[in-house]
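[Automated response] Your request has been received and processed.

Submitted sequence:
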Amino acid sequence: MLETAVVAARLAGRHALEQIEYARSSVKGTQYRELVTQVDGQCQKIAVDHIREAFPDHGFICEEGEGNAIFKMAPRGGSDLWWCIDPIDGTNNYAHGLPIFAVSIAVMHQGRPIVGAVFDPATESMFTAVQGDHARLNERTITVSDETMNEFSHVGIDSHFDWLGHDADWTRKIMAATRFRDIGSTALQAAYVAKGALIATLQPGPKLWDIAAGAIIVEAAGGLVTDFQGNPIFPVALDSYDGGKFKTLIGNKAAHAELLQLVR
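Generated structure:
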C-alpha cells in the first residue's frame, strides 16, 4: 500500500506542478470559504484511478466531490481500508502560483492511519511512514526535534484566526515567543514537524484528509498528534465522517507539552 501511495502521490503532484500556471480558481463553501481549482479534481482522479487499479475493493474519502461535497466511496468485501486523499493541500498557495503545496495520501484501518505519504512536488520531497516503522524523507529516516519554544524555534500557526471561535490570546503568546510560520499547507507543516524543521504546528480547522497522512508520519518520527485538549484524534468513525474539522496540535513531545498549556 505504501508503494501505491507513493506512486499515486508522485503522479498527482507532478501533474499539479505542470499545470500550476494554467490553474483557474473559484470559491467553494459558505461558512468557511476556500479556493479550489480545476487541477484539484484532475489530481484527485489521477491518484484514485491509480489506487483502484491495485486495490479495487478499498474505500475512499477525498476532498473533491461533486457540488462542493466530499468524495466518499465505502470499501467493499469487508476490507475496512479507506484511502484518505487531499490532492492539493495548499490550494490557496497553488491558485496564486506559489509552489508550496503537497499531495497527502493516507490509508486508514479501523479509523486510524496506518500508511502515510506527503509529497512536495516543488522540491521532490516524499515524506512517508507505515505503522510500526520509522518515518522517512526520500528513504532517509527522520525524527522530530527536542527543541522547546524559544526565540529561534519555528511553530506553525494557521492564518484562519476566525476559525478559533475566541480571541486566541495564545496565538499572540506564540508569536511573541517564537519565529512563527504559516506555510499554507497543513500536511507540509506536519511533515516539517516530523523532520524537525518545525517544533509544532497548531491547526484549528483541518479536515481528515489534511491531517491523516501527516499524523502517522509525525507519530512514526516520535511526535504527538492530539486535539487542543490533549486527547487523541483517532480513531475516527469513517462510515459517518462527512467533512468535519479537528482542532489539531502536532509537535515534538517537549513543544507539545508547552503549547498544550497555552491552548487548553
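Summary generated for your ticket: The domain at 2-142 is CATH 3.30.540.10 (Fructose-1,6-Bisphosphatase; Chain A, domain 1). The first strand starts at residue 25 and ends at 28.
If you did not submit this request, please reply to this message.
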